[in-house]
Amino acid sequence: xxxxxxxxxxxxxxxxxxxxxxxxxxxxxxxxxxxxxxxxxxxxxxxxxxxxxxxxxxxxxxxxxxxxxxxxxxxxxxxxxxxxxxxxxxxxxxxxxxxxxxxxxxxxxxxxxxxxxx
Length: 118
What we know:
Elements lengths: L1 H8 L10 H29 L1 H6 L3 H12 L7 H19 L8 H6 L8
């Protein structure tokens, strides 16, 4: 999809303007950001379980707000801080096990209760 958009917007001659720095950036994104991220993600799912690993996705916007300010972006405003506090509270609740997990058909099958009404 990105190739098609590039072809339409920039034209096929744009490929000739790529520098080694551009190609290194693409390689970095392909290898580090994609491949390593998937390995780390599935390792986290294996080590933590899917429910707790899913909580890690809540850290992404918080990290983006913090890193944006560190690299020279604007300091987050009050609504962002309120959102960060809400995400933090949700993560703390999720990690502490304060919210019971909904039963899934897979869990019922694994526990030997498949087909039985509770």
